[in-house]
Design goal:
globular, mainly alpha, 2 domains, about 475 residues, single chain, about 65% helix
Length: about 475
């Protein structure tokens, strides 16, 4: 089930709201749990069992970690929990890729003739949202082990936290310490209701009015037999605009739904495409994922406290893991390497330094000068990274790179005429660079009539076009 569908907007959500606030005798946590499993099982009911299995293991791991066991015993309990989570995630996301790479190494690189090769590559359907709920579940056991939170003794509350449908399949990645305390509350203020309408409506508009037209055109550009110079340059910026509006739109809708049911989900995008460096962009894009890797990987490995080279290693590692987290494939690996290289180089030359840190000569010369040029360079480099990320294979990405420097036989100017795309592209650029983001706009909410008009316009757009899933559903 997707947020931008009639089933969700006019059946599922109204029924859940009516039961949640209209039937006083119904407890909140069980209702949200059942609703969330229905929401998730709408796609493939059998994968509800997988989420339930992961939830059960980490619930009892949390209880065990809360007991008065030795440090060594608790480490083993944590290890078993992590191994189970990463084992499931690795099987569904990486097993087929590993088998295909092994076949290529044996047959094409080593040129060996082994009777059992090539191995059959299994067709494994990736469960929607497994990367998100797995990381949420792991963060709970980490936090209990470190003593940051106490383990919950309510399986219903914990299962509801893992399966919470507003952010289940594409984030933001929330922590147990901020969600579990609100599982017992059932009050909603007029301020929360206004915020819920604000975030959900603008998020829906991002998805339906901007991301979908951009996505259709991006697909058409990538499917051209030959990509020309202008098409290549347009496609990389269209890709990053599409990705931004699709994912930030989902995050906004999830935050709005969270407010509707009494939860405060964290900021996930903070105008990242206005960043003047890749380091700043990374910090402001998919904030909850980067903060997860910071808290559970970067800092435990020493962060930036153990010398320059350890810092470089840790920066490289968290970005590489972020790329691998998204999926198995050479395009993901190259994307991760490109992002990691940018962070390390910026750290080395001092671009990523804060105002309180000593800056080197290059940073001192640049200062705040050439700010817009730096924003343009950052956007272009990140657009190249996203183009690699979204390309079906490495060969296609190489074709785009060649076309961008004129090494293409295709016509110089693009051959398509899609006015919906052009409108979304221009309007999207204006919104990104000249307007406040949804969190900034939330400080001064618009009249109710504005949100009603935007919502009805989005519903009309959905009616004219088929519903499309969010990009991050496949991660």
């Amino acid at each position: 089930m997707v947020f931008n569908s009639y089933v969700f907007l006019f059946y599922f959500l109204p029924i859940v709201i009516a039961l949640y606030y209209g039937v006083k005798c119904l407890p909140k946590a069980p209702l949200l749990l059942i609703s969330s499993y229905i929401f998730y099982g709408w796609w493939k009911p059998e994968y509800m069992l997988l989420m339930l299995f992961s939830t059960t293991i980490d619930f009892f791991a949390g209880l065990a970690l809360g007991k008065d066991f030795s440090r060594k015993t608790k480490r083993w309990i944590l290890f078993i929990s992590i191994a189970m989570n990463l084992g499931l995630l690795s099987y569904f996301k990486y097993f087929s890729f590993v088998i295909s790479v092994l076949n290529d190494i044996i047959e094409k690189v080593l040129n060996l003739q082994i009777p059992c090769f090539p191995l059959q590559v299994p067709e494994i359907v990736l469960p929607i949202g497994i990367s998100f709920y797995t990381f949420q579940s792991m963060s709970y056991t980490f936090d209990v082990y470190r003593g940051d939170i106490k383990p919950t003794r309510s399986f219903t509350d914990f299962a509801g936290y893992i399966a919470l449908f507003p952010q289940l399949v594409a984030g933001p990645i929330v922590r147990a310490g901020t969600v579990l305390p609100d599982m017992t509350s059932k009050e909603i203020t007029s301020e929360r209701l206004a915020l819920a309408i604000h975030f959900f409506t603008l998020g829906l508009a991002k998805k339906v009015l901007l991301a979908d037209p951009l996505g259709i055109a991006c697909t058409a550009l990538h499917e051209q037999e030959a990509i020309g110079f202008a098409s290549a340059w347009i496609s990389i910026y269209a890709d990053v605009f599409h990705w931004y509006f699709d994912f930030s739109g989902y995050s906004d809708m999830a935050i709005g739904l969270g407010h509707l049911f009494g939860f405060s989900f964290p900021l996930n995008f903070n105008s990242p495409l206005k960043a003047s460096s890749m380091t700043e962009l990374v910090v402001k894009w998919h904030i909850t994922l980067i903060s997860w890797f910071r808290d559970y990987v970067y800092i435990p490995l020493g962060g930036n406290r153990k010398g320059t080279y350890i810092t470089y290693r840790n920066l490289f590692l968290i970005m590489f893991l972020s790329g691998v987290w998204h999926g198995a494939g050479w395009t993901y690996i190259i994307w991760a390497l490109m992002m990691s290289l940018a962070l390390v180089v910026e750290r080395a030359v001092g671009i990523s330094r804060t105002k309180d840190e000593k800056k080197n000569w290059l940073t001192a010369q640049i200062g705040e000068r050439f700010l817009y040029f730096r924003i343009f360079l950052t956007l272009t480099y990140y657009a190249l990274c996203v183009s690699c990320f979204t390309s079906p294979n490495v060969s296609h990405f190489i074709v785009i790179l060649k076309a961008m420097i004129g090494m293409s036989d295709a016509p110089l100017l693009p051959q398509f005429k899609d006015y919906f795309f052009l409108t979304a592209f221009i309007l999207g650029g204006i919104i990104i660079f000249a307007c406040k983001n949804t969190w900034e706009l939330a400080r001064n909410l618009k009249p109710a009539a504005f949100y009603i008009a935007v919502f009805m316009f989005c519903v009309g757009a959905i009616l004219l076009n088929k519903e499309t899933p969010f990009m991050y559903f496949r991660f």
